[in-house]
Design goal:
2 copies of one chain form a homodimer.
Chain A: H1 3-26, H2 33-40, H3 47-50, H4 54-78, H5 83-95, H6 102-114, H7 118-141, H8 147-165, H9 173-184
The first copy, chain A, binds a DNA duplex (30 and 30 nucleotides) through residues 1-5, 7-8, 11, 32-34, 42-50, 53-54.
Chain lengths: 192, 192
DNA sequence: ACCCTCCTTGGTCGAATGCCCAAGGCGACT
DNA sequence: AGTCGCCTTGGGCATTCGACCAAGGAGGGT
């Protein structure tokens, strides 16, 4: 078949994957043309053949990651049949996460870079909005009061916990989840 | 009479202030020797006279900012006489904050840089721990259950809200505060 | 008046940066 | 078999980077 074009797309994907790795390891603005090429196992010139600039490559990698993660949230939330289960489902997929894991760092790096890149800011904003919307819908379905603001707080708390975990040890994930459960089950004492 | 040593300290302070500004504007790894010197209004060589490296200057600037902010939290929290007031005091000093304001961005930049600099990680971790501790103490004094985990969630939610605000509009600060109030006043409906 | 210490200047170093380009390769079509 | 188009190579360009340093103030203490 079309070997040249296919291999081209393959190289493109390898560069995107390399970008996601290097953003985490080095920080957004410290990812360079040559290191990208080396990590992807290709010649340096290919970076500017497939992408208009290093920045464009980084943005595309981050947007891809955001879209990919947002696509996963729907199925996860759909399986929950009570408000408490919604939180359990959310938190469960998070407790495996240390705060210094690649995914967390990549997202925080992207958040920051977005304050200096309008296109990236918009794409990440959409991802957050989508996540909030899905979450609010599930909360509303289970009679949680003020679902939109609650969803916003939950989403923010999750990202904040990741941020803090990267810096200092804190209460266990179970203890934090118990606290957050107060948000979705008002009026009842937590069952710890 | 202004001694040479005094002027030297003055220049040092100017460099630290310039660093805090430039970290926000350009991103941690994009702050360079020459831009630092220009912003501080001094010769480029002075950067490496007063500091062993650019990285050391950035770290010191960030740690100073963290200590300064942590020093402010005590008085703010002390004035609150109910659990609800604690939250109001916390949130009030935060609602003037856009999420893209210099202080927020500086801290998130520092958080990220800390994942790659052990000394910075430790200093910021201490600041977070101190904040959590003060907050937990106030919460415990007002009979909030599980004060430590609650304080951790509140602190994380605050940072998370700042992070999200920089990217996308969301519910008003009042609406978010009402949701968080459920954490500190369990069993009572929010008064909106 | 003299040193002595500290601060300051402006330039230089090798290395690394982003981006570009002429030349070559290689499979898919006619 | 020959042409075409896309992908790939490796080097080159001007620029900027962090770090360094010799030389020059400038004031305090003796």
């Amino acid at each position: 078949m079309v070997t040249a074009a296919q291999r081209g797309q393959e190289v493109r994907q390898r560069l995107l994957r390399a970008a996601a790795e290097l953003i985490v390891e080095r920080g957004w603005t410290a990812v360079t043309t040559r290191v990208l090429a080396q990590r992807a196992g290709v010649a340096p010139g290919l970076v500017h053949y497939h992408f208009t600039s290093v920045q464009a490559l980084l943005v595309e990698a981050a947007v891809d990651a955001a879209r990919s993660l947002a696509a996963q949230t729907g199925p996860v939330l759909a399986g929950a049949h009570t408000a408490s289960e919604v939180l359990t489902a959310l938190w469960g997929s998070l407790d495996t996460v240390s705060g210094t894991d690649p995914t967390s760092v990549l997202f925080v790096e992207a958040y920051l870079a977005a304050t200096r890149d309008e296109r990236l800011r918009q794409a990440l904003g959409e991802a957050i909005g989508l996540f909030r919307g899905q979450l609010a819908e599930r909360l509303a379905a289970h009679a949680v009061p003020d679902p939109e603001a609650t969803a916003a707080v939950l989403a923010a708390a999750i990202d904040g916990v990741l941020l803090h975990r990267a810096l200092v040890a804190g209460p266990s994930g179970d203890a934090l989840a118990a606290v957050l459960r107060r948000l979705v089950t008002p009026g009842s004492e937590d069952a710890r």
